[in-house]
Amino acid sequence: MRALAWYLVKAEEPSRADIAVVLAGDGYGNRILKAAELVRGGFTTRVLVSGPDGMYDSNEADLAISFAVHRGSPRSWFIPFPIRAYSTREETLAIVPELRRLGARRVLLVTSDYHTRRAVALYRGAAPEMQFRVVPAPDRFFRPDDWWRRREGQKRFVMEWMKTIAGWFGV
């Protein structure tokens, strides 16, 4: 059971990059705080924050940035990027052109640990000219070594595997 969970996780060491990208889908702030940590660590100077509408008439990117600012990060680090996407694949197709427009060549991709392998594969496939390094943000509900002990961990595991398998079939 551990091996199946660890397969989903692709953790890479961060290196100096033109920009970090925070993927949408984290309502707890782990991804945005990991990105702020990367800026503090000198790995990048700017963060593109993806976010769809729909959370109490607010955009997720705006909510995430406000959360990071409330936690002590300067607002100037973050670039909100509102999108209309309902999957990681759609999000990739929206973000890659923006990364090209910004002249990004080296990108730190920040997402939840269980989402790393699938996300970075999509980005590398969509923009082979760019160097993507995926940096996992921890998720308090999913731990690869004991995900089955908590209901939220079970849900994350099953959903991510469903999406991974669907992706193998191009769905």
Overall description:
By secondary structure, the protein is an alpha/beta fold. It has helices spanning 2-8, 30-40, 60-70, 88-101, 116-126, 151-168, and strands at 19-22, 47-55, 58-59, 78-83, 106-112, 131-137. The chain has one domain (10-141): HUPs (Rossmann fold), CATH 3.40.50. It contains six helices and six strands. Strand 2 and strand 3 (58-59) form a beta hairpin. Helix 4 (88-101) packs across helix 5. It is globular and about 40 Å long.
Short summary:
With about 170 residues, the chain is an alpha/beta fold.
SSE arrangement, N to C: HEHEEHEHEHEH
Tell me the number of helical segments per DSSP (H or I, 4 or more residues long): 6
From the alpha carbons, calculate the radius of gyration and give it in angstroms. Answer: 15 Å
Full CATH superfamily name: HUPs
The portion of residues assigned to helices is 40-55%
Which helices and strands occur, and which strands form pairs?
Blueprint: H1 2-8, E1 19-22, H2 30-40, E2 47-55, E3 58-59, H3 60-70, E4 78-83, H4 88-101, E5 106-112, H5 116-126, E6 131-137, H6 151-168
Parallel strand pairs: 1-2, 1-5, 2-4, 5-6
Antiparallel strand pairs: 2-3
Helix pairs in contact: 4-5
